[in-house]
Each structure stands twice: as C-alpha cells, then as structure tokens.
C-alpha cells in the first residue's frame, strides 16, 4: 500500500486504551491489508497506563504507512476519543479498528471502499464479524442478516431497531457523513450504535456478508467485559438519551428497541429458531459460547484455494466426519472446506472438531436459520475460483473434483454436475428394488440451455445438488438460494443458472454417494410433509420461471407451443408467457396449468393485457370459468407414488379413523395399483373390489 497523494483515500483510526495484550495483533492486521488505495493511520490512544502507547509508536515508526499518534494528557473517555479521531481524519473514507480487535480478511479495506464507490448515496459500510470469546476460545457469527444476497442496504430506522454491527471495527464511514453528525450525539455516551444511526440519517448503510473482523470478547474490554444483563441495563439507560439526541426522529424504532431490551431483562423474550424451537436470547448466547474452539483464521496472504467446498450441516453428527473425509481424500487437493453448522443440537460440531486439517473452517451459527440460508452463508465466505457443495450426510468418490475441473476447464461452461449412487445409513449401496420411483433421475444426458429449460418446465429437477462444481462468480449473476424453499432451493437456482450459462452433466459418472433416509433425516426424506411441500414449491417456482427467461431463449425452448416464431412486444409478451403455462405437457402439467390460470386471471384485470388475451387467444371470462372447473388440483403421479411409499399403515389408520368411506374411496382408487388389496381392511376392499376388477 502506498500513498500517492497528500490527501489519502482511506484513514484508518485505531482506538486504544490499555490494549498491550492485543494491539500488536490489531496493527499487524492493518499491515496485511491488500489495497491499491492510499492509506493513513491515526492511533487515538486514550491515556493508556500500560505499554500500549509505546507499542503503537514502535509500529508507526516501522510501518511504511504514514500515520500519527493522538495521545491526550488525561483520560477522555470513549465518546470524546472517537470525536477527536474523526475530526483528525483526512481520508475520503474512514475505517475504524479498536485496539483489541482484528481484521481477518486482507481485502476488507478494498471491498468496503468499493462498496461506497458503488453506492455514492451510502454513508457507511459494515461487514459480518465473528464474536471471538478469546478468554474461552469460542466464537459466534453476527449478524445473521443479508443471507439472501451479496449486499444489503440498511436505513437509520432499520439500524435503530437493532445494533446490527456490534462494534466500530467492522465499519468504514464516508467522511462527509461523519461530518454531518449532530454535535448532540457526542454529548451522549455514543457507542457504535449511536454513530451508525447518526450517519445513516445522511444515507443508508451497506452491509457486506463476508466475515472481515474478529470482535474480541474478553474480561478487559470496555464493553465486552460486561455481562449480558449489565450490557442490557446500560442500553436501557442509554436509549432515552438517544431519543432526545435525535430529537425524536427515531423515537418509534428506539422505543421498540427499548421494549425489547426490557423484555430481555425481565427474562421473558424468546427467539424462535427456524426449526421451530423456542430459545431464550440468553440461552442462544450461552449456546454459542459453549461451542467448540474455533479453527484458525484463513491465511489471506496466501493464494486463495482453487475450490471452496461448502458443507451446510444440521444434526448430522452420525455422518459429517465421513462427508468431510471424503473431501480430504480427493485426488485434487487445492481446496478449502467451509462447514456451516446451522445450530445443531447433536454432536455435529464436536465431530467436525475431531478432523484436523488447516484447510478446514467451521462456522457455527448462533441460531437455526434454515438449510438454504446456511448454504448462502458458506457461499458468501468462499474464496475459491470454484464452489462445490456437499451435504453433510453425503460423500464423494475420490476423483470427483479432479474430473469436474478437467471438464470445466475444457469447456466453456459455468457448472459441472455428475451422477450419483444411492447409499443407506451404513454407506452401503441401496438395492435397485428399494429405490424410489425417481431413482434414476440423476442419470441425465448433456442438453443445451433451451433443452434444460424445457425439461425443467415439464419434469422438474434432475440435477444432483451435492454433485455441483460451479464458478463462484456465477452466483453473482444468478443470485443465492431462496430460503423460503425447503425442498427445491437448488431447482430454483438451476433454472436461473441455465437461463444465463451453459452447463455440463456427467450423468453416467456416479461420483456422489447420495444418502437416502426415510426418517426425515434430510430434505430428501420421503414423508407426507415433504411430498406436499414439494408440490407447493413446484407451483411457486413455476409461477416465476417463464417470466425470467429472455425472449430468444424462451422461443428456442418452447417454439412448438407458440403460435408465432417470436414473442410479441409489450403487453403481448406478458400474455404469450402466461398462455404457455396453459399449454403445458408432461408430469408437471397440472401444476403449470394451475400457475397459468392464476396468471391469466390476474392479466384479465388489466385492460391492455385483457385485450391481448381476448383478441389473440380468445380467452375471456367463460374460458377461465371452464378451465377452472376442469383443472384438477392434484399431485403429480410421481408425488402420488411418493405418498404411497410413506409409512402406509399409519396413513391408512388415520384415514380410516377420520375420513368417511366416500372420501377414502375417492383417494384410494387413484392409488390402488401400487397397493395389494389384501393390505386394506374389509370395508375398504368391499367398496373398491368391483372397481379393481374393471381395471
């Protein structure tokens, strides 16, 4: 890093007070920053009584970065110390590092400055951090926002709702925004939360999801040495002064935050995890403290790995070691392994801790956020050129990565998928007769983008998620996984993937050992809930699918269903897409036609699109009435088969108890072929026997 101009691009402020145990590590993390921008360093020491000041002077003397030491003759306190440091800053952007924290990502300054360049309206930028319980050797990740993308904008109102950023050390501010802070703010005890609220009145904050800072929690920190209850008590006392300092502008949000703090102090506030369990906030904190010792921070000065292997995990202690070791035994060894534990309640974290390898990083989320969100977290932390996904209960064959890298380098594709072999809990291959009806689904040929889109539309997913090797930058184009989808977040992304890029599929090469569990042990488990959820998610995905496709690709994929060789302009384009749903064929036809009816009904409410429906396709109210009466809202045949295979005796017992005979007949007649008649009770057989003979 060099300074080419007298006015630096970035001022780094280091705030210290009695940090002799930690300041060398903090300053070293500044030296490790890799940036082309000019940087100055200001160390604002608040009258330390230990060796902190001497250590700071030594570092300034030896560092190639220009810098200065601000050292008062008496203790100022945190607010005034920050006020004078901000006033001394000359850079366009101002980054802060407290003397007991560490920047763990060598690209932090560059990445944050780039974000402020992209968003001239933004007042500040902050990155995700690790809470580092250094006295105990434990860690936790915060904040768990922004799990659905690569950056998030936050208003002052959103920040007033909660102190998302936890520490100055994760932030970079626009100096003009700092200069706009009302003087009254510095007359209060202004911690990072107050400063963030103040600057974001100038403009929003940008949140970046990559972990860039370790916020050290230790018994000598000004704030972190306090107990949770003591910190909440202090926040309770501070909020009224913040309401006054902001002249009531954020009073609604701050009052809401005050109520939240008071509930915590009363011990009555609970947070509901994504898995449905109630956990008090104190218990969440204690759970994160009780996690196993962390792995070392990645060495950002070294070359990034070729492949980032992401292993999202939840309660797979029985299998996760085997999953990780199948990665470590790959013939291609240039990778990192990122395990994201989604607040498991079993021994998963301890099992991962038993695997010793410097390429392995473990992140334990403080609360359960859901499978797709945990996967997104891993993608956000990945440093490799390529990303591979492995479920924590699956495994890879040793040649898997090497074979995919060979293909992705030889062909102009964004991703490579392989076939899979099914295994049971004991890792043994499952006999063919025990496989579900879709057992051969991953044995797919190569297809063009248009052919894949047509296949997806008519048949659903056929690509094995834990087989993917994908260019990391492809996620920046197609976006991250949708956490509202539990069964089909991968399918939703594959549609986006082939909408933009070519892919390669090695369907006849089963390089993944895909574990099937029938006890709800993973999302592939066949249960009544998973079958019905898959049906609904297919409908949700279908409703958006054709709307997202470029015209040319849509015509190539569905030319035989279109009346004309092109998609019409304006309102006509919207209608042409909706009508395609009504003409759907294949196993998912009923779902797609239902999506089409919904779309047509909505389009009939708009005069322009209604005119196109009427004049081009003859679709009017009567057409919708007729189709709505004919359209069968039923599961696909594959889904019916799946339901038939699920815990049949229990389902039958419940049906016989709760349903009338007529209802049983209507349901079971569709499924009789898959079930021997002798398996059903007498009264059901009596009603179905004549029908079965006719069949």
Automatic annotation (TrEMBL):
Protein name per Swiss-Prot or TrEMBL: Glycosyltransferase involved in cell wall biosynthesis
Domain Glycosyltransferase 2-like per the UniProt entry, residue ranges: 11-180, 308-478
Region feature (Disordered): 269-301
Pfam families the record matches: Glycos_transf_2 (PF00535)
Source superkingdom: Bacteria
Cited PANTHER family: GLYCOSYLTRANSFERASE, GLYCOSYLTRANSFERASE TAGX-RELATED
Example of a GO MF term: transferase activity
Signal sequence bounds: none
Keyword list, A-Z: Transferase
């Amino acid at each position: 890093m060099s300074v080419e101009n007298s006015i630096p691009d970035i001022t780094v402020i280091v705030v210290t007070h009695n940090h002799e145990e930690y300041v060398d590590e903090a300053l070293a993390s500044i030296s490790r920053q890799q940036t082309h921008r000019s940087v100055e360093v200001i160390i604002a020491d608040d009258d330390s009584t230990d060796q902190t000041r001497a250590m700071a002077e030594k570092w300034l003397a030896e560092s190639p970065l220009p810098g200065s030491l601000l050292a008062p003759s008496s203790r100022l306190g945190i607010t005034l110390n920050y006020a004078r440091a901000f006033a001394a800053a000359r850079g366009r952007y101002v980054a802060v590092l407290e003397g007991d924290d560490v920047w763990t990502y060598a690209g932090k300054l560059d990445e944050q400055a780039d974000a402020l360049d992209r968003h001239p309206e933004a007042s500040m930028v902050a990155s995700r951090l690790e809470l580092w319980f250094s006295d105990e050797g434990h860690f936790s990740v915060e904040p768990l926002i922004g799990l659905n993308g690569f950056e998030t904008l936050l208003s002052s109102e959103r920040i007033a709702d909660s102190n998302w950023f936890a520490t100055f050390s994760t932030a970079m501010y626009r100096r003009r925004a700092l200069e706009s802070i009302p003087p009254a703010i510095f007359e209060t005890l202004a911690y990072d939360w107050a400063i963030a609220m103040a600057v974001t009145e100038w403009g929003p904050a940008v949140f970046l999801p990559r972990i860039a800072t370790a916020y050290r929690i230790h018994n000598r920190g000004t704030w972190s040495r306090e107990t949770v209850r003591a910190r909440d008590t202090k926040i309770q006392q501070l909020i009224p002064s913040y309401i006054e300092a902001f002249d009531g502008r954020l009073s609604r949000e701050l009052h809401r935050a005050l109520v939240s703090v008071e509930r915590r102090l009363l011990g009555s506030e609970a947070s509901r995890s994504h898995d449905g369990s109630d956990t008090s906030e104190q218990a969440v904190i204690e759970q994160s403290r009780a996690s196993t010792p962390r792995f070392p921070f990645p060495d950002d000065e070294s070359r990034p790995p070729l492949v980032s292997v992401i292993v999202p995990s939840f309660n797979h202690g029985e299998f996760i070691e085997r999953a990780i070791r199948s990665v470590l035994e790959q013939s291609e060894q240039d990778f990192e392994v990122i395990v994201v534990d989604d607040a498991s309640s079993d021994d998963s974290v301890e099992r991962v801790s038993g695997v010793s390898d410097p390429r392995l990083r473990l992140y334990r989320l403080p609360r359960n956020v859901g499978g797709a969100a945990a996967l997104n977290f891993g993608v956000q932390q990945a440093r490799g050129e390529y990303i591979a996904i492995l479920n924590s209960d699956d495994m890879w064959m040793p040649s898997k990565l090497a074979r995919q890298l060979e293909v992705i380098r030889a062909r102009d594709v964004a991703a490579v998928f392989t076939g899979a072999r099914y295994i049971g809990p004991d890792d043994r291959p499952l006999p063919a007769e025990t496989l579900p009806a879709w057992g051969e689904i991953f044995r797919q040929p190569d297809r063009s983008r248009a052919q894949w889109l047509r296949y997806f539309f008519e048949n659903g997913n056929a690509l094995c998620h834990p087989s993917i090797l994908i260019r990391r930058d492809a996620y920046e184009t197609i976006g991250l996984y949708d956490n509202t989808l539990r069964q089909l977040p991968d399918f939703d992304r594959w549609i986006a993937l082939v909408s933009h890029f070519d892919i390669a599929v090695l369907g006849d090469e089963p390089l993944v050992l895909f574990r099937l569990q029938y006890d709800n042990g993973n999302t592939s488990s066949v249960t009544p809930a998973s079958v019905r959820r898959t049906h609904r998610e297919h409908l949700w995905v279908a409703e958006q699918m054709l709307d997202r496709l470029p015209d040319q690709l849509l015509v190539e994929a569905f030319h035989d269903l279109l009346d004309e060789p092109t998609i019409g302009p304006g309102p006509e384009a919207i209608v042409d897409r909706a009508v395609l749903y009504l003409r759907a064929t294949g196993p998912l036809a009923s779902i797609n036609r239902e999506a089409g009816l919904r779309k047509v009904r909505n389009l009939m409410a708009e005069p322009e699109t209604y005119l196109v429906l009427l004049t081009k396709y003859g679709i009017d109210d009567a057409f919708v009435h007729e189709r709505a009466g004919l359209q069968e809202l039923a599961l696909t045949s594959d889904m019916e088969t799946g339901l038939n295979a699920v815990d049949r005796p229990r389902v039958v017992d419940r049906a016989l108890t709760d349903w009338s005979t007529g209802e049983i007949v209507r349901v079971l007649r569709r499924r009789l072929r898959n079930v021997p008649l002798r398996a059903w009770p007498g009264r059901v057989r009596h009603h179905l026997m004549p029908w079965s003979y006719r069949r």
